[in-house]
Amino acid sequence: MLDSILQRKTDPVCTYKIILSDKILSERKDILEHIRRHSKIWTKHNPSDTSYKAEWKEDYLLLKCVDPSIYNNATEEITIEELTDTISKSPKDKATGPFAIPNEVLQHLPPSPSPIY
Q: At the top level of its lineage, which domain of life is listed (predicted)?
């Protein structure tokens, strides 16, 4: 829907063959099976490696040369003016965030959005 609003067109992905290290797949059923298998493996659960935790612990300690007062206003509420200004300065044609809303759509919001509850 957003692509049609923004008049963006995407070309479909066409896979006529897959070149592997030991063979070339060109039969439709083999290609689909390979893609299915690859997607299943690629998206499997991958727990983080905690063996490096101790090695990096010191790097995550607070720096003595940084004044902790710089974080005092980090929890203040964001104003509508700050939000509007940030959205208006956001570049177009960039990857979306986790909500998949492109900057172009956000920039077309009304100047004073209604509260979200």
A: Eukaryota
Q: Which candidate, 108, 56, 54, 101, places its Cα nearest to that of 84?
A: 108
Q: Is 87 left (phi over 0), alpha (psi -120 to 50) or beta?
A: alpha
Cα atoms in the 13 Å half-sphere on the side-chain side of 69: 0
Q: Which of 107, 103, 106 is nearest to 92 (CA)?
A: 103
Q: Domain coordinates of the chain in residue numbers?
A: 1-44, 76-111
Q: Which residues pair with 24 in a beta bridge?
A: 19
Task: Identify the residue whose tokens are 């007062």.
Answer: 69
Q: Which residue has the tokens 């299915």?
A: 36
Q: Tell me: the pLDDT tens digits for 76-100?
A: 898 888 988 999 999 988 888 888 8
User: What's the pTM?
Assistant: 0.38
